[in-house]
Each structure stands twice: as structure tokens, then as C-alpha cells.
Input
Amino acid sequence: MRLGDRLLARFKDLSIRRKLLFIMTLLSWGTLFLATVAFTIVEYLQEQDSLTEHIRTQAEIVAFNSRAALTFNDPDTARRVLSALKANNNVHSAALFTQDGRLFAKFTRLASEDDRALSAPGRPLEESVRFDHDELTLRQPIRLDDELIGGILINAHLEEFGKQMVLHTFVILIILLVTFSLTFYLALRLQNLITVPIESLRTAASAIGQGDFDTPIRIHSRDEIGQLALSFQRMSQDLAHERASLQRATRAKSEFLANMSHEIRTPMNAIIGLTELTLQHPMEERPRSFLKKIAGSSRALLRILNDILDFSKIEAGKLDLELRPFTLSEVIGHMNDLFAEQAAEKKIQLELNNPSAYPGPLLGDSLRLEQVLLNLIGNAIKFTDAGGGRVTLTVTTLQVTPKRVELEFAICDTGVGIDPTLRDHLFDAFTQADSSTTRRYGGSGLGLAICKRLVDLMQGRIEVESQLGQGSTFRFTARFTPVTGVHEQRVGEEAHVSRLDPREVIVRIAGARILLAEDNAINQLVAVEMLSALHLEVQVVENGWQAVERAKEEHFDLVLMDLQMPVMDGYAATRALRVEPGLHDLPIVAMTAHAMSGDREFSLAQGMNDHLTKPIDKDALHAALMRWIRPRLGIGADRAPVAPDKTANAALMQPERIPGIDLTEVMERLDGNQSLLRHLLDNFAARYATADRELSSMLASRTPEGVTEAARYIHTIKGMAGNLGARALHGAALALERAIQENRPELFSAPLAAFERIHGELLDAIVALPAESVVEETTFDSGPVDRTILLPPLRALARAIRNNDFEASDRLREVEALSRCAENAALFTRIAQALDGFEFERALEMLNQIAASVGIGDEELK
Amino acid sequence: MTHHQNGQKGYGLKYLMNPLRHLSRFLIACLMLLMAASADSRAETPTESHVKVAYLYQFTKFITWPAEAFADERTPFALCILGHDEPFGALLAPLAKKQVHGRSILIRHPTTPHEAIGCHLLYIPRSEEAHIPETLDGLRDKPVLTVVDAAESNERAWMIRFFRVRDTLRFAIQPEPAQQAGLKIHATLLEVAHETR
Output
């Protein structure tokens, strides 16, 4: 029974194909077998009957012929008559009996069979037929005119019959075997009629399950399966339709968000920009303080807007992690800098354990990691009541492989804790532990949702343990790529926008001619004001077409190009400019309020040199201007002292030209440090020598892991190429990255081939470089800042802070830009934080620390 | 044996008056007679007579008479014993109850060949051996089965002849005279016969 159940269960698990085959074969074989058995039995019985009949006939003949012998008591004749049976090989013995049952005559083929013949069972004069194994015993009475005169007994071997039956069975077995094979073959073929449609239905279903609604179902029958396929097809069409409309809706939502973001940013640009511009004018104290409050509030609003935008980006799957080298201790140190003061103020003990759980450099988005930590630690401090509480951050290394480092961060507090019923929805958007939380603690409710999604992007998990009143522990894991080699890190830092002293900017680029293409009057105003403040000459046009025309007529050092303009947009204008002779290297910087998508890459791909997001950040604008405006003779009578060094350095450069590398660009970025460039190039050549092969093998795997890995790999290479000024490689890497992101394996081959070619050329060029002749040790840090340089801005900052002035933030940036002393970087961040939190006293204290570090006393700042 | 004796004695009025009883006795007697016929003869005279009577009767079963031998369908089968002498006595009586080819048996005792015309089977006992030639001549080509009990085989045209081999009664058959007389002798009878010549 159990076995039967098991077999039945196993049968149920078989594919329909096998089931059908099994059933058909079983039925046909069973029927055949039964038919054959029945046929054989009937045949056997008939054979037996006919044999019996045959023997009986012979018995009758012998009986007839022996009547006279019996009647006239002539045993000799009787024996002679009996011996006629000799002709029948089956008969081995026979006997005649007289009417009183005595043996009258006998016939035996072998002498040894005498006894058996005589002792055959049955009464001598009665009619009987017995089959006993291979023996037939037939008895018949002999009559003469109704008078019983004796009996005959015939014993026949059934050997002949047995042989006949064996032959018969053999033939039947052969027929059975042939028929079995034939039915099996037929069943195998016939079941296709049913299983092939089912199989194609299944294939279609799984294709639809994977989101491919276009797979046709090739079933043309009108049976149940055909109807099923038909309704299935209708259903999948409906689904496809639904999905398309859903996609449209999602796209519309993203579009809407982008537009809203654009629409909000445009007025924000005006508000922030104009407020700041207004503040530069002399005015009374009261309106000045109102304006400063407007500026502060606008920035706060922008931050919230950025939060929401971040979340929408993540939701739309458009937030990509950047890959930058960083170290864990940097990040943790940063956290300490940010929160130490705040925690101390609330008398909360802040412990950051094991900051160097993984001491080496890592590749990953440290800013996003910091964003998560910032949120969680900020929450922990926020929700821990002042006095006696404790917040700890503990880092644990979970896994270290050559290609991956997995870290776990645990943020533990002794705060209010979280109600278990709310815990499940904690990471959902727009949720806070308690609606009263919003009232007590504020916040958009997006923080944890963003954290959760960022952690997801970092291939980690986030979870929470909490007990109401006892505190909470948030735990998340994240994966990073270990970096071997120190110099990539340098390049990464190099790419980071550093704040520049506006005065230095002025010195470098004053007098340069800027073409501003912008259709919005307020934006025009803001930009013109910003640029004029830098002593730049600005020409304004209102669309791309005008921009192209103007650029053809006059010389400009740089074009600031809005992307969305009437008549001709920024992309089209850029493309048009790039084909103009003499304008192909004109620096073009895009300006856009589109912060949603990865527009930056797109802008670069369209031939633009840089990309700024509105509202225009002054520092970012300065950086872009500094980067792209080429210093030329006659502009800026007074040059920054570093500039000649760079030129000199560049002049020393050997060789003049490296194929595939834009030396101008990269030397600009590396402060003209040729030795560093050489080092970076060698490093790149060593590390990515086999990048093409690795990529193609990752892609060849066609697994999601392989593709993801390839995407990350190419992204890194793209960044490296960009940093090294390897334009062609950057472009090829970008194209390949696009193809990978679209996840269309059929599109991989062309960009991959291009990448391989360019990669090979670049490597050849690097290898072909002559051995480094001059090894010049250069320091990259500008060293301690002169006390005299820092004194005026520090003073201004101190004054602004004491006045509780909003301007303080701007002053702080100036100071920070001038002070290149790395030790103070954290302090600057904390001061900025303190200013944001209107904690002016603390800001002032920290400022004094900074001043002290460069030898400026408290007194001098007053 | 005892029964047999009883049967012999009881033949007559008593037999007719008590048919059931006598029938059973007769049957037993017949059985005994047949047994005697098929068993090895011990050459005792009465037994040999039994055998002879039985044989005479049995011969009829292996021989076919022509249709013209009988006047009509109800004509009885005439079994004739030649001569005045009655060698079998009461042994013949049971035959009266039997049939030959569906005909009742009529037992006659002709004394001359002429009288024998109309017989279907004529037995010529040893006592009448002397009359064999004339009888056979008289019946030549007549459909009469002639059975002789002769010590010597002669050239006469008898059809069946009884003789003794040691103690056993045998018979010989001459098929030609029978054939000429229109009688058909069954092959199996010929097989059983000795010295058919």
C-alpha cells in the first residue's frame, strides 16, 4: 500500500509527456498481453481438442477394426490392428480389453512403457479422456451392434503437442515483442499530439512569467488545449496591455517628478540666487536679516526637495551608485566629526567601535554609505532622550574575498524604541514610528525608506531590533570592492569638486568671455550676476540657435548652455557647435534643472564638457569655470602663483603626446604632475591589462551576476578612463555600459568590440612610453596655509557667526576653500552642521580651534 | 454355470409366464456364453457348442446379405442347422430373441439341400459332413452363408469352416464362394479368419 502510494506520488510528479506515454503503453501492452494470453489459452485448448479428436478417431478406427478380433477372440489380430497406431508418433501405447475388463491385446512403442500402459487410470470399458502433464489417456468402449464387446485404451505423448505449443508461444512472443515496440513507438509519436501543444503553452507561460508577452503560442488545434492557448494568448495580450499602460503610467510619474523637480528648481534658483545677490548689496540690518532667513529656509527647502528627489530616483531605479575609492575609517571619522558635538550636547555617549574593521581602501559610493549612516545615527541621537543615553556604531567584517568585502554596521541606541506593530512598516516610505513622532521630532518620513533602498543598492540588508522603551538596534550590511593600490584613490579625490576661493577664481579667469544660452529671464539674471561677480564678460542669448550663430561670430572662452530652450535645445546646439570648424573644442557646460536621470553622462556623450544642476551652486560653477576656461595671455594680469609652475611642468612633459590620452585635460586635473600621470597610467595598464577579456567572459556567462559584475567593472573603467583623460576609452566604456544597462545581450558585441580595440590601443600606447627619466617627487597638498591669507576671511566668518548671520555659511566655504589643511576638514563640516542647526556658539568655538591650528589667536578674530 | 443350467431348464412355459425373471436369467446366460466365446476355449464340448452358436450369430454381424435374399422387410433371418440331429439343443433358443440386421431370427432345421433354399445361414454340423458336397452344390450362388464343421479342408465351396487348433476353435473363410453368392464379408472378419483357403 505504501509502495503503491509512493509510486502514485512519483507518477504524479512525472511530466505529462511521460504520463501519457506510460498510460498509452500500459493500456496497449496490457490489452495485447491479455489478448495474447487468451488467444494462447484458446489455441492450447483447441490444439488439445484437435489432438484428442485425432486420437479418438484413431481409437475408433482401431476399435472398429478390432471388433472381429474381440468377437472371435483373436488377440493376434487385435495386436496387429493395434500396431496400426505405430504410424502416430504421439501414441506410445495402446491396449484392448475384453468386455469383462481383461487385457486382450496391447501395443507399446517401448517395452518399458508396458506397465504404464496397463496401469493407466480409468475403468477399461468407459469413455474417458485425461490429460496428465504431457500424457493423453483416452479410453473408449467398443460396441458391436449396440453390444458392448470390449474397450480400447490409447496413451499418447504430448511431446509433439508441447513442441507445437512452444513453437506457437515463441511465434506469439515475437509478435508480441514487435507489437510492443510498435505500440511504444506509436505512443511516443502520438503523445506529441498532446504534449507538444502543452509544452509550447508552458514555454509561452514561462516566457510571459519572465515578462516577455510577445512570444507567440503556436497552437492551432481547436481542442481544449487550443482553446486554453487562445484564452492564454488573450490573457497575455491583456497583461501586455496592462503592463504597457503601467509602464506608461510609471514613465509619466517619473516624467512628472522630473518636471516638478524642474519646475520647483527653477523658482528655487531664482529665490536662492537673487537672495544671495541681493545680500551682496548694502542694506539695512533688518531687511538683511529677513533676506538671510529666506536664504536659509530656501536651502532647507532644497534639501527636502533633494530628499524627495532621491527617493523618486531610487523608486524609479534611476539612482546609480558611484564607485569611488574610500576607506572605512574615513567614513567613520566623518560620522564622528558630524555627531560628536551633537551627542555631547545631549549628553549622549557616542561610541564608534572598530572603525577600521577593514583597513584597506574600498571601492563604493561612500557618500551614499554616509547618507545611510547619517540617517541612522541622526535618528538614534534624535530619538534618545538627553542625558545618560548611549549610541554605538559597530562595524563588523562579514566576508572578505579578492572581489568583495561585506561589512555589517550596527547602530544601537538606548532611546524610545519602536512599537513592534510598527516595526514591519518602518522601512516603508512616508512612515514614522508614531504619528506623534512627526510632531515631536519632525522629519519627512523618507529617511529610513531611502536608507533601505540605498542598502538594497549596496547589495545589503537592513533590519531592526527594538524593544519599546529599551532602545533600538539598526543593522545593515553592504558590499564593496576592495581596492589594491593607492593611486586610484588619489584620482578619485582629484575628481571631487573642491571649493575654491572666489578670489583665486577671479585671478585665474577674470576677463574671459562667456556665452550664456538661457531662455528664462530670472535664470539669466542669476547667472549674469554670478558671472559678473567674477569679472567675466557675459553675452546672453535666448536659445540654441542664437547661441550657435553668436559663437560663430565671436570668440568665447566658454558656453553655459541651458538644455531646455525653445527653437533649438542645448543638445542640438552643442552638436551643431561641435561640427563648426574651430569650435570643436569650445568648452560647453550644460545647465539643467533635470536632476532626475543620469543626464550627466548623456550630456557628456552629446559632446558637452561638463554638467551643472540648477539651482546653480556657486562652488560648482566656479569649479567648472576653473576647469574649462583656458588661461590665455592677456587675461588676468595677475596670475596665481601656481599657474606658471604648472605650465613649466607641462613643458617638461615627455612625451609630447600619448595616443588616446587628452593630455591637456588630464594635466589640468593632475595639476600638471607628469610623474603622477605616468604612475597612474602604468598602474592602469597593470590593473586593467586583461579588462577586455574579463569583460567578455563576464558577459559571455549571460547570468544576471555576470552582467551585474560586468556593469560594475565597466563603470569603474569608465571612471578611470575619464580621470586619465582617455576620452576614446571613456566613450567606448560608456557605450558598453549603456548596452549592459539595457540588458540586451544581442547589443553587447559591437560596443564590446569597440571597447576591446580602443582598450588594446591605449594599452599599447602606455606600454610604448619610454622609461621614466625624471622622477620628480611632487607634493600634491598645497601645504600649510599662510596665516596671512586666512586671517581676513576667518575674521569675516567669526563676525558673521557672532551676528547670527546666514552669510556665515558662505564665509565658511571661502575659508574652507583657502584652508587646505586636511586635519581641519572634519571641523569645517561640523561647523557647517552647527550653522545649519543655528548653533552659533558651538560654531564659533570650533572656528577658534581652526584659527589656533594656523597660529591665529582668539583675539585676532574679534 | 449354475445359472446357465437354470436357464436351460427354465426354457418353456415357465419362462413365458415369468418374463422378468427369465429375462434376467437369459441375459446372464448370454453373458456367460459370450464370455465363453471370447475367452480361451478349454475344448469342453458344451463350451465348444456355446462358442459355435455364438460365432454363428456373430458372423452375421460382419456379413452383408444382398437385398434380394429377403422377400421383404419383415422377412426373418433364417438360421438353419442342417439335418435331423440337433447339435446345439437348447443353446439356440436365446437366438430367437435376437436380431440380425434388424430382422428377427428364425431357426430352421432343413434336412435336404432343397429345404435349405431360403436359409440365410446354413450350418452343416460334423454329423452332416457327408452331405456337404451335395448341399453346397445345391446352394451354389444362392445368398446362403454356408458354415461347415469339417475335419478336413476340402476343395468344396464352403464359405466358413470351423476347425480346431489344439483346444481352440478357429474358423477359415473362403471369400470367393461368398462373393459369388452376393455376400459381402467384412474385411475385419477376414482378418480374424485363419487359413482363408
User: Anything to note?
Assistant: Strands of chain B lie at 63-64, 77-81, 99-100, 103-108, 121-124, 145-149, 160-165, 168-173, 184-185. Confidence is low (pLDDT under 50) at residues 1-17, 36-44 of chain B. The longest strand of chain B covers residues 103-108.
